[in-house]
Design goal:
A 6-stranded antiparallel β-sheet has the order 4-3-8-5-6-7. Strands 1-11-2-12 form a 4-stranded mixed β-sheet, sandwiched between helices. A two-stranded antiparallel ribbon has the order 9-10. The two termini are about 35 Å apart. It is elongated. It is α+β, with helices and mostly antiparallel strands. Strand 9 and strand 10 form a beta hairpin.
């Protein structure tokens, strides 16, 4: 659709059922570029700032993706001893505001954690797996249903965007389809 959602319909007889999973991931925006070229961030969606220190990030600048690493003011010298997003910064390996701007970085530039995927024995670990797990479940369900018995419902599978931004992406799907039932697939994992 126009928002970026992917919607698949599997016809059947019965109530209209909508299963929803989101494809987006939490992230950040550049809130400020400091004189030394460091970036201050603002959260977008449910981004967990307390897991950000030491993370490698991608800054999606106009001129291309710029790599950075998140640093933090040590707790013993943080203002008031309080740790929060204001004590974190992105180090791009530059020495001035002008050098950061020359990379195409400006206020509002998106920042995401570097994607990682790891197999740990019989489990997997990855960024935003709570988001992707629901999508994987919908894909598997679609594969099973395509050649299966007739459904006792009219089923729509929606892979939506902007769930991390007040469910903005899912709203147009619900308004257009007017389902009888909506089931959201999501997970919360440990950090």
């Amino acid at each position: 659709d126009n928002v970026g959602n992917l919607v698949a319909h599997i016809p059947g007889n019965g109530p209209r059922v909508l299963l929803v999973a989101h494809m987006d991931e939490p992230g950040y925006l550049v809130r400020k570029i400091l004189p030394g070229g460091f970036l201050r961030l603002e959260r977008v969606g449910g981004a967990a700032w307390n897991t950000l220190a030491g993370q490698h990030v991608q800054v999606w600048a106009q001129a291309g993706v710029v790599s950075g690493v998140v640093g933090m003011i040590p707790p013993h010298i943080a203002p008031g001893g309080v740790q929060d997003l204001n004590n974190l910064f992105v180090d791009l390996g530059v020495c001035s505001l002008e050098q950061a701007q020359a990379l195409g970085i400006e206020i509002g530039t998106p920042v995401t954690c570097l994607p990682r995927f790891q197999v740990m024995r019989d489990m997997v670990w990855a960024n935003s797996l709570d988001d992707r797990a629901g999508c994987a479940l919908l894909v598997q369900l679609a594969q099973e249903l395509v050649h299966g018995a007739p459904l006792h419902c009219d089923l729509t599978l929606a892979f939506v965007v902007q769930e991390e931004n007040l469910l903005v992406g899912g709203q147009p799907v619900v308004y257009e389809l007017r389902p009888d039932y909506v089931i959201g697939l999501d997970a919360t994992l440990t950090y």
